[in-house]
Design a protein that fits this description.
The protein has six helices and no strands. It has 193 residues and is an all-alpha fold. It is globular. The protein starts with 10 loop residues before the first helix and ends in a 16-residue tail after the last helix.
């Protein structure tokens, strides 16, 4: 008898879905606060940090599914983009920052689809992982600092934007190299690209 794969609704995917459900609450908490929002920052940290948990559960229990490999990086992007949008609406970061991040995510998603049609997988590259970590740090700082216009905060935002653009170029280079680019061996890694 042929063994079927793991069920689509499993503990790893449930954690991923719970992470996605946190996004609108982060947005509401951040936009309703007059200034810093420690509640939004705490919820963001829990949702972003649980990415490692869903990846661990999926790998350790052999629960990696096509749905999970699709949802996990999407939820990473949803959390960061919704938090940055809330920060822009609150006037704590420029809307241009949100547009750069969203454009990168759309562009990389398109490149991954192109790679898939060409018969290979663009893995999560080290620059993408560093970009995600820096985005998370930047979001938490912007949600909690009393003065988001401080010079050091501006420098952090610019570093995050630079890492975002660099990771976009890194993916474009990997797409150009084609099948010689690193293949993804663990689709649910701790931090997405």
């Amino acid at each position: 008898m042929r063994r079927s794969g793991p069920p689509m609704l499993n503990p790893a995917n449930a954690i991923t879905c719970a992470r996605a459900l946190a996004a609108p609450f982060i947005f509401l908490l951040a936009t309703s606060a007059d200034g810093a929002s420690f509640g939004a920052a705490a919820l963001f940290l829990v949702a972003a940090g649980s990415d490692a948990l869903d990846g661990y559960v999926a790998r350790s229990r052999d629960l990696i599914t096509p749905l999970g490999t699709l949802l996990d990086p999407f939820v990473d992007k949803l959390l960061v983009c919704s938090a940055l949008t809330a920060l822009a609406v609150s006037g704590r970061v420029g809307m241009w920052v949100v547009l750069v991040v969203v454009a990168r995510e759309v562009g990389v998603t398109w490149m991954r689809n192109v790679a898939r049609r060409r018969g290979f997988v663009l893995a999560s590259l080290p620059m993408g992982k560093a970009k995600m970590a820096l985005q998370c740090v930047t979001v938490v700082v912007l949600l909690t600092v009393p003065s988001p216009g401080a010079a050091w905060v501006d420098a952090l935002v610019l570093a995050m934007v630079a890492a975002t653009l660099a990771s976009w170029l890194d993916c474009a280079w990997a797409l150009r190299r084609g099948p010689d680019a690193p293949l993804s061996t663990e689709p649910r890694t701790a931090i997405g690209a």
